[in-house]
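User: Structure with zinc ion, tokens only please.
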Amino acid sequence: MWQERLGQLVTTCHWIGAKGWAPATGGNMSVRQDAQWCWLSESGRDKGSLTGEDFLQVDIATNQAPSGRKPSAETGLHTLVYRLFPEANVVLHVHTVNATVLSRIEKSATLNISGYEMQKTLTGQQSHLDTVPIAIFDNDQDIDALAKRIEQYAQDNPLNYGFLLRGHGLTCWGKDVNEARRQLEGLEFLFECEMQRRLYQRD
Ligand SMILES: [Zn+2]
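Assistant:
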């Protein structure tokens, strides 16, 4: 099951690479194997040409890779999502221009998205009239500290679809590769719309 999922993730990584959403070897992607293990892309690999060999098995509880190879510096954010959301089986972390810039333009702790038909591409959203809150966390090179802040936030607030790291990018997830990919494409479209709207409309 997870082997098939990993194959689908590799295809999705190539798509992400082609979109320019993980430039200069940035970003990282993973799939869950089971309650204990996930497979995460190795540090410094170009997402446009990843293969299954470029993924490392990582312990979800400890962030350790038994192979001794170096998992991504942002491993702790993937394992956090798997710990917080047992239904999440795929995590995508990208450095898109829209996620990077919009998370800086929006100064508050939440980007509120409303008024867009495309909100309905996000699982469970029924109407453009609803507000979709996307949490923004200040970036931190200390991933353990950052993961702790996100975990604390998630104890008191809903954390749906994904979160933004300010000036850094987007992390999103899904129950399978198709759902994670749809949330990523949907959110990225909404971020692009919101960027354009803020350029032209000042209210
Ligand atoms: Zn990153």
